[in-house]
Amino acid sequence: MAFDLVFVCRSGAWVPPWADASFTDFLHSAPMPRTVFHRNRWVHPRPDPGRMADAKAALYSKVEEITDNS
Question: Given this model, what pLDDT does residue 3 score?
């Protein structure tokens, strides 16, 4: 089947992080030029939401500590 355009969409909320390398390999194996929407550029490895949530919780804890001491 011949085609001129392929749109690949992937949800980070539905696809587990251990599948990221396979998705990256899939993108690199495409036999056609790539164009990406700059706001939706694929980043691998993607940011770790658990680490980011821990950092945010630590910051909120520090703010509470500062405001309790004032």
Answer: 79
